[in-house]
């Protein structure tokens, strides 16, 4: 990264630093927000796309402990992971490489989603938040950590065009166009899992009312500041929020 800055003209270097600084700040806010919402603990990471060749991932430590001003790392979309970057950031690389519509990615450990996944189940569309993953959240049916490019490719093959993929007993990956939407969708995934687990306890006597494709399409809206309000709710109180700009 330093070599790239030095190779660029002075004006371009200043603009690059500003863009990366803004993106880094936004990623820190998103990381701490995911942790405060109970969607990540010691493990997890999030990132934002910088351009067609690079993305920025948060510092390789518990997201809730990332400090004000603590820098993340710029990672190439094509190429080896930089030193100090966690191995599962390969998942982010695969998504940014295949999905030009994606501007932000999170790898998290939502507890209800995790519990449901051990039944080889993923959340159904039983209420509003679940509809954003129609026709259904894919399951990567392997509890192992992702430590190779081949594994990462296979997980993202399973993701396809969906907003999320659940990894059996091993959390989830969520992808969206913006950091704000990525955080909101991660929360939606977990809330859908919460409702599904509640319903499963009663379903023998009372079948669940699963929303059909038309109902999902009508409900999975972004009108009415749906994403923005969830972002405001979840990120409220972050020490860098007032300085963060929207990053795509």
TrEMBL record:
- Note the Pfam families from the entry: Aldolase_II
Query: Which InterPro entries does the entry link to?
Result: Aldolase_class_II_sugar_metab, Aldolase_II/adducin_N, Aldolase_II/adducin_N_sf
Q: Which Gene3D superfamilies match?
A: Class II aldolase/adducin N-terminal domain (3.40.225.10)
Q: Name the GO terms of the biological process aspect.
A: pentose catabolic process
Could you name the domain of life of the organism this protein comes from? Bacteria
Record-annotated Class II aldolase/adducin N-terminal domain positions: 25-197
SMART domains per UniProt:
Aldolase_II (SM01007)
UniProt keywords, alphabetically: Lyase, Metal-binding
Q: Name one GO cellular component term.
A: cytosol
User: Which is an annotated GO molecular function term of this record?
Assistant: metal ion binding
PANTHER family the record matches: 3-OXO-TETRONATE 4-PHOSPHATE DECARBOXYLASE-RELATED, FUCULOSE PHOSPHATE ALDOLASE
Q: What is this protein called?
A: Aldolase
Species name for this entry? Pandoraea pneumonica
